[in-house]
Amino acid sequence: xxxxAATDRGRARTNNEDSVFADAARGxxxxxxxxxxxxxGEVASRLAVEVISANLLSAPPQLxxxxxxxxxLDAANLAIWQTAAADSSLTGMxxxxxxxxxxxxxxxxxHAGDSRIYLFRQGRLERLTRDHTLVEQMVEAGELTPExxxxxxLRNVISRCLGTEPTxxxxxxxxxxxxxxxxxLCSDGLTGMLEDEEIAQVLSEQKAxxxxxCRKLIDLANERGGWDNISVxxxxxxx
Length: 239
Hints:
Blueprint: E1 2-8, E2 18-23, E3 28-35, H1 37-58, H2 65-86, E4 94-103, E5 106-112, E6 116-121, E7 124-127, H3 134-140, H4 146-151, E8 171-176, E9 182-186, H5 188-191, H6 196-203, H7 210-223, E10 230-236
Antiparallel strand pairs: 1-10, 2-3, 3-4, 4-5, 5-8, 6-7, 6-9, 9-10
Helix pairs in contact: 1-2
């Protein structure tokens, strides 16, 4: 596969609390969106990416992918929790995370929070994750429509993340992809600005390399206001 990662401060924030990682050769893709103030969010997302990528890169290749992801996210959660406990200025910091581990035609997904993972296939964008948020729970319970959830005042209330509790509860699942497909990981700085149909339209430019498409998505989100940090990781199955 080929892959690219990009992150941008956006137009409303003074700092960037997102972190990204993409290693096409080893099939590792990560987006983390930190929370906890100017310093805390940056530290939390950076720790998540550093610890998860280090664990995935150093693990024995025969280790079962779901266990590997669970252990990597557990390690990241503990690192964030312990760092916050040792420094009062970082109290309460945490981060969302979305991780994809590619094994040939298999996509092993792990996520916590509202950073998303999508599959793009033949012009159609499919969301592979569900947001761990209060409003997503309300949508699932039939209390809100998806359209109402997008503008609800509590839409940013996260129900799961890394670092705010001593143990993590990521959601882990498997999907498949094939030649010509793309997988997209992104923070809510992108999905809060763009509809899925608009993202799909950008990804339809199959002749453009992933780095150019990442930049185009970020530029479009900034044109819409860029109210949050914007992070995108994009990989394409090249066969």
